[in-house]
Specification:
The chain has 103 residues and is of the alpha+beta class. It is built from one helix and eight strands. It is elongated and about 40 Å long. It starts with a strand and ends in a 5-residue tail after the last helix. The relative contact order is 0.26.
Length: 103
């Protein structure tokens, strides 16, 4: 089962943040509460911890992107096989979408 890593609310007046750097890459194991990504806002810089232990299966926001609070930054899977299947399935889906329809 996937656990979502979400852009946290880092202050009452903070509505968005920018991903500065991923501290882990897709496929890496992360422990619960281990820093996974560095975020910056107009008021604070913070390292966001993993909400659960598992494999970082999918990074959805790239470095340099600014996203609103509550946006899913990445997903973490308990089992490596699940992480691989999700990534492979999505890769195939994106390749299919990119190809023109043949009639």
């Amino acid at each position: 089962m996937a656990v979502e890593l979400i852009m946290p609310q880092m202050g009452e007046s903070i509505a968005e943040g920018t991903v500065v750097r991923w501290l882990k890459k897709e496929g890496d194991w992360v422990d619960r509460d281990e820093p996974v990504v560095s975020i910056t806002t107009e008021k604070v810089d913070v390292e966001v911890p993993a909400p659960a232990s598992g494999y970082l299966s999918r990074i959805m926001v790239q470095e340099g992107e600014t996203v609103p609070v509550g946006k899913v930054l990445a997903t973490i899977e308990e089992k490596k096989e699940a992480a691989k299947v999700e990534t492979k399935t999505e890769s195939l889906a994106s390749q299919t979408e990119a190809q023109p329809e043949v009639k």
